[in-house]
Amino acid sequence: MTQSTHLVGQVDTEIAEFLASREPILVAVADELSSFTDFSRDLLSGGKRFRARFCIAGWQATSSGAHSAEERAVITLAAALEIFHAAALVHDDIIDNSDTRRGMPAAHIRFAALHRDEHFAGAAGAFGRASAILHGDLLLGWSDELVDAALALLPDQDNARSTRAEFNRMRTEVTVGQYLDILEENAWPTVPDADTIRRAERVMTFKSAKYSVEAPLALGALIGGASAAQVDSLRRFGLPLGLAFQLRDDVLGVFGDATITGKPAGDDLREGKRTVLVALARQGMPHSQRGAFDDALGRGDLDAAAVADLQRQIEFSGALESTERSISSYTADALNALHAADLDPHAVAELEELAQLLTKRSF
Hints:
Blueprint: H1 3-29, H2 34-45, H3 50-62, H4 68-96, E1 100-101, E2 104-105, H5 107-117, H6 124-152, H7 157-187, H8 196-223, H9 228-255, H10 258-261, H11 267-271, H12 276-284, H13 287-296, H14 304-316, H15 319-339, H16 345-360
Antiparallel strand pairs: 1-2
Helix pairs in contact: 1-2, 1-3, 1-4, 3-4, 3-8, 3-16, 4-6, 4-8, 5-6, 6-7, 7-8, 8-9, 9-15, 9-16, 12-14, 12-15, 15-16
């Protein structure tokens, strides 16, 4: 077992112990609140732990690793990132009306099922959405508790302050990035066709790329007191890799196998996601075809045949091929930046492996 794998295992333990420590607090208020920790455990038991792994790798790439307090702090910070991500997923599924997450019912669906099972009054769907919003808010608060716990372990408070500032910036950027995503799904009829790709790229930069790869790398480096040059080199690696990661996610959201991704095939089409892939597809279509394509996109009742038809249109437009080229180009840019950086060689090997995993995955 590599050191990084061992540390990711410790992140899992940190998350489990933190949730266990919060359950008595909730149950002391009311027994019914155990649903929050039960649903949190299920949500956090899955996932790829990419953000935790990048946080750990950022620390390993720039730190001697000799300080046990730093190691403990980076594990706790990585756990905070995973809980923050879980909060974002809960809210994202409400926004997108997604019924599933990681092969399980989404949080708002589970709360709605609780409503029906217990024969509560009112509408199950409304109860489910309201409860899941609060669940996401609770997870956000818990992630911040873990950030505070991580920073309290650091002997160097300058490192603590710079790490907190980076976390705060990440939190702001991903939140407004989510808003930009909602904006594009609604404002697209008012946007000139020439601007759609640029605006879709803006969404994927702030909603995903910086938050999924660049910020976790920077956070891990900052917690160990990395130099400005080292943090900058990790950012030059992390941003293009994050863009490649999101483009792969966009491809899987349209063409992915539901048995592998844990989400229904073509879910992004039903949700009306205005991704770079979709923007490229519209650009590659005859103008006469765009109207029918736009009418179908975002219809929640699309059946398998309708999804397959949209998939064919996207592929025929050349958008899929163009997106695959962009993924390769962004990945190459990231690896070139990584190889030019002054970083620990073992961590560089780990980051190379992560880059391949992110961009060639089928899940």
